[in-house]
Amino acid sequence: MSRHEHLERSIPSTSADPKAEVTLTVNGVSVTREVSTRMLLSDFIRHGLRLTGTHVGCEHGVCGACTVMIDGRAARSCLTFAVQADGADIRTIESEAEEDGTLSALQQAFQECHGLQCGYCTPGMIMNIRAHFDSGEELDLSDEGIRELISGNLCRCTGYANIVKAVRRAAELAGKA
Ligand code: FES
Ligand code: FES
Fold first, then answer.
1. Where are the alpha helices (DSSP H) in the chain?
2. 57 ligand 1 Cβ < 6 A
3. How far does residue 40's CA lie from ligand 1's centre (Å)?
4. Is the CB of 63 under 6 A from ligand 1?
5. How far, in Å, CA of 4 to CA of 7, rounded?
6. Does the CB atom of residue 68 touch ligand 1 within 6 A?
7. DSSP class of residue 36?
8. Beta bridge pairs of residue 24
9. What is the pLDDT of residues 32-86, one digit of tens each?
10. Which domains does the chain have, with CATH numbers?
11. What is the pTM of this model?
12. Cα→Cα distances 158→42, 114, 149, Å
């Protein structure tokens, strides 16, 4: 056998990347897709569903830019495989505003208080805060309490002061303060 034939035979004719079907609810809509078992939930949301409001920063669980809600809890979608979310209820930043574009209390507060500059961290920041707002837990709205709340979301632009104000303002607008 020639070297070329040997090389040709050593290459499998089908992809070795296994696939699996997942069904999950995203922003209230049920979706079923076949995905690579190694596809990250962040990539599935952004590329599979074209919901590009979820951002990807570090891709290893540090920055919080990719935060979405999974079954009501804030989670890093870059640390979750799409197949792990099979059957889950996912909520992304696209669920915040009303259909007519009216901003949610959280979004309004970020706008009013200048809680963003480039906006890269903002979707993850908002989904994290949303999970805490919706959980019914008692919120500590002191500066320290808010800083603790957002400690898993890194922002390179704002210095955090206006984000802290925005969270407190959002709590007021949502009747939680
Ligand atoms: S992109 Fe997921 S934590 Fe940074
Ligand atoms: S507003 Fe730019 S990273 Fe936070």
1. 3-10, 41-43, 105-112, 122-135, 143-149, 161-173
2. yes
3. 11
4. yes
5. 5
6. no
7. E
8. 31
9. 999 999 999 999 999 999 999 999 999 999 999 999 999 999 999 999 999 999 9
10. 19-95 (3.10.20.30), 105-173 (1.10.150.120)
11. 0.91
12. 24, 9, 16
